[in-house]
Amino acid sequence: MTKELGVGIIGCGNISTTYFKLAPLFRGIRIAACADINPAAAEARGAEFDVTAQSIDALLANPEVDIVVNLTIPEAHFPVSKAILEAGKHVYSEKPLVLSLEQGEELRKIATGKGLTVGCAPDTFLGGAHQLARAYIDAGKIGQVTSGTCHVMSPGMEMWHPNPDFFFLPGGGPVLDLGPYYIANLINLIGPVKRVAALSSMASTTRTITSEPRNGEVIPVKTPTNIHALLEFRNGATITLSASWDVWAHRHANMELYGTEGSLFVPDPNFFGGTVEASGRNKDIQPLEMWEHPFAVNNWDHPLGPIANYRTAGLADMADAILKGRDARCSLERTLHGVDVMVSILKSGEEGSFVTLSTTCTQPAALGIEEARALLR
Ligand SMILES: NC(=O)c1ccc[n+]([C@@H]2O[C@H](COP(=O)([O-])OP(=O)(O)OC[C@H]3O[C@@H](n4cnc5c(N)ncnc54)[C@H](O)[C@@H]3O)[C@@H](O)[C@H]2O)c1
């Protein structure tokens, strides 16, 4: 039998159900316990998924827990991840890993000192669609990527999330909340970023919640909700990222990459699947034939129809990496570079000048069909 690592979950809110539901698909991990600052939340999830609910201290001392998944809100990510490392456990966090480079460096120092691993979502770039796009670029089909555009724009989050406050506070905002999916996928597809510039603004200093149960409640906005950024990559590509919660409707695609031999149209990096399209120099845009990648298979009901959802693939890949002594694809190095990109975009928006990044990273190893299958039970 393959060795399994015990997983504890801290933060039993909205996204935790996805982890509880999907973790059992993967080899090498087994959810052993859950906890929350609000014990009732942990008890409710524990009862729902037949997992032991504990206090946070008890979970951190639980010998059956090797990796702790941090699913708390962004401002709690750093202190909770730090406490996890200090308790001698590996960390896998939801995005954003931290809210500053200093926090990330502190986690790196503790983890290195204790021989522990830190990893972080998003893992959607491991999806069948994004890995198909990666294979297409790696095969030279669009030549050298020289430029591109990314758009993630909507009216906001207060119409669906039951507690949307954190989206509009420092640590939230569309760049830190949705940017990670785009930046992680760009790192997957073309590598690290060299420098950034941005303009930022907010359409309103308050938002009115229209989701239940707090329908009608007015909450403050304390971070930009409209950001247009320029990213210069180390490979020379120049790519725009428009991230906004001040847009009711638009006609831009999620991600388009332009190369010396053609163009690639990448589906929404927030999801694992979708149609990848491409054209050569003949400008004839055609869908690529979807390969038999396990992380492209629809397995999840979404309000807009069935989708491929393999969240926790990054956690399973990290557990496999720990067991085999290899590099995890959703590694601290890559995630911290992503944080550097995002906080530098916000800094440029405040200061009005280019910001050169102080971190870099390698491209993650591609995740082909066989490697993805090997992560599944
Ligand atoms: N909701 C989504 O669809 C979604 C998708 C992808 C990623 N995420 C990310 O996951 C994280 C959690 O999002 P969510 O939507 O589940 O939020 P949520 O507010 O629904 O849940 C967060 C939970 O963390 C608990 N918590 C807060 N501070 C804590 C602390 N210091 N110690 C222990 N528990 C604490 C809260 O009590 C709550 O139960 C965020 O970083 C978010 O960006 C959410």
UniProtKB/TrEMBL annotation:
Chain ranges of the GFO/IDH/MocA-like oxidoreductase domain: 130-264
Keyword Hydrolase: no
A GO MF label: nucleotide binding
Segments forming domain Gfo/Idh/MocA-like oxidoreductase N-terminal: 6-118
E.C. number: 1.1.99.28
Record bears the keyword Oxidoreductase: yes
InterPro entries according to UniProt: Gfo/Idh/MocA-like_OxRdtase_N, Gfo/Idh/MocA_oxidrdct_glycsds, GFO_IDH_MocA-like_dom, NAD(P)-bd_dom_sf
Keywords of the record: Oxidoreductase
Protein name: Probable dehydrogenase
